[in-house]
């Protein structure tokens, strides 16, 4: 944690790729014959949350652009949508954040202005980095500025191998190790390069890239009840997979593997994170720390998915390091010894409470009248 935000933790696990089936949203909108002033499409889901039903909007001209591939999906990977994926119908906005792809869709409304839904305004925003949580609470106008709303994904990449806590014998019979991972961009822009550095970004090596999406380009038939339309659309919405053979001796001489990607618009991942109130859209270089002990290399990812503990960022923070010092919290030359940071653990239990609940008692509270959340 660099600085406390109002968001929650994803780790490198908030992305996926799937094959959806359904009509294009533009076909439905055309039937409504939008008026001249129509500029946005508002979508609302059936999920009622503390501040009302979830809803958001996207620009009408995006919906009507066939290259954007915006659709209403009823199948995912050939199967009817599962309830947690939006059954029976959901919006799919390729190349944009998941918060725009409304699940359990109940409404499509053509509007003149962006949505005024609470969740459209107060979520999925990257406020300027100087805006603190306190400032954003005292001055709601920060949230109402549509310039700060997130739509297209930013360029991002991650390494899957080496895995977190994976160990490699330096004396291994293999002279090279194959690092692997994924990268993706936003708005249908293709990732054109993934680069790896073993010397803190002084020099870079070009990784191989595989584009699974391209395997569908020449397919002009039907699949899962829908017509595959990839043969004419040149957009790249899905992740690509990268790999690079690295000499084990080079890994031994390094203290970290750095990964960065660039798309066809020359958007490139920055070295450092851009802090914001919700902590969203962070896409700095992906870094795997390397430690050496008794002829063994051990790899450490920056974080673990969701709330799973572990990762070099957590370790550095506990050691008193400054993750925003420009060198990933490492000690600089001549730096004085650090004082370890004492992490105060929050006890969620009421003082003096000492009670065990068995499954029988828990099941008595599974109704809407008196539900228990576990």
UniProtKB/TrEMBL annotation:
Gene Ontology terms, MF aspect: heme binding; molybdenum ion binding; molybdopterin cofactor binding; nitrate reductase activity; sulfite oxidase activity
Cofactor: heme; FAD; Mo-molybdopterin
Gene3D superfamilies linked to this entry: 2.60.40.650, Oxidoreductase, molybdopterin-binding domain
Pfam families with a match to the protein in the record: Mo-co_dimer (PF03404), Oxidored_molyb (PF00174)
Superkingdom, taxonomy of origin: Eukaryota
Domain Moybdenum cofactor oxidoreductase dimerisation: 147-292
Residue span, Oxidoreductase molybdopterin-binding domain: 3-119
Xref: InterPro entries: Ig_E-set, MoCF_OxRdtse_dimer, Mopterin_OxRdtase_euk, OxRdtase_Mopterin-bd_dom, OxRdtase_Mopterin-bd_sf
GO BP of this protein: nitrate assimilation; sulfur compound metabolic process
UniProt keyword annotations, A-Z: Disulfide bond, FAD, Flavoprotein, Heme, Iron, Metal-binding, Molybdenum, Nitrate assimilation, Oxidoreductase
Family (UniProt): Belongs to the nitrate reductase family.
Reported function: Nitrate reductase is a key enzyme involved in the first step of nitrate assimilation in plants, fungi and bacteria.
Subunit structure: Homodimer.
Protein name: Nitrate reductase
């Amino acid at each position: 944690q660099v600085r406390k935000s109002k968001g929650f933790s994803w780790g490198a696990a908030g992305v996926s790729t799937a094959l959806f089936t359904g009509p294009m949203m533009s076909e439905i909108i055309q039937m409504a014959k939008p008026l001249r002033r129509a500029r946005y499409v508002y979508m609302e889901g059936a999920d009622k949350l503390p501040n009302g039903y979830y809803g958001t909007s996207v620009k009408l001209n995006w919906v009507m652009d066939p290259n954007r591939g915006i659709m209403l999906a009823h199948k995912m990977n050939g199967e009817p949508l599962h309830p947690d994926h939006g059954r029976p119908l959901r919006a799919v906005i390729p190349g944009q954040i998941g918060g725009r792809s409304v699940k359990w869709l109940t409404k499509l409304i053509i509007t003149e202005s962006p949505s005024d839904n609470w969740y459209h305004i107060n979520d999925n925003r990257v406020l300027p980095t100087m805006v603190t949580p306190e400032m954003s609470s005292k001055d709601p106008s920060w949230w109402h500025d549509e310039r700060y709303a997130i739509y297209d994904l930013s360029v991002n990449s991650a390494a899957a191998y080496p895995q977190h806590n994976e160990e490699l014998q330096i004396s291994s019979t293999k002279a090279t190790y194959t690092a692997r991972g994924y990268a993706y961009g936003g708005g249908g822009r293709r990732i054109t390069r993934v680069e790896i550095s073993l010397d803190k970004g002084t020099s870079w090596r070009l990784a191989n890239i595989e584009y699974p999406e391209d395997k569908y380009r020449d397919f002009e038939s039907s699949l899962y009840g829908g017509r595959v339309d990839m043969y004419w659309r040149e957009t790249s919405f899905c992740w690509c997979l990268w790999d690079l053979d690295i000499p084990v001796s080079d890994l031994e001489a390094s203290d970290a593997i750095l990964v960065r990607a660039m798309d066809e618009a020359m958007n490139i991942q920055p070295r450092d994170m851009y802090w914001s109130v919700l902590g969203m859209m962070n896409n700095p270089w992906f870094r795997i720390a390397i430690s050496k002990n008794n002829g063994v290399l051990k790899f450490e990812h920056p974080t673990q998915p969701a709330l799973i503990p572990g990762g070099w960022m957590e370790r550095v923070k506990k050691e008193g390091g400054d993750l925003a010092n420009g060198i990933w919290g490492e000690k600089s030359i001549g730096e004085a010894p650090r004082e370890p940071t004492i992490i105060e653990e929050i006890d969620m239990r009421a003082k003096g409470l000492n009670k065990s609940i068995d499954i029988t008692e828990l099941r008595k509270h599974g109704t809407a009248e008196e539900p228990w959340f576990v």
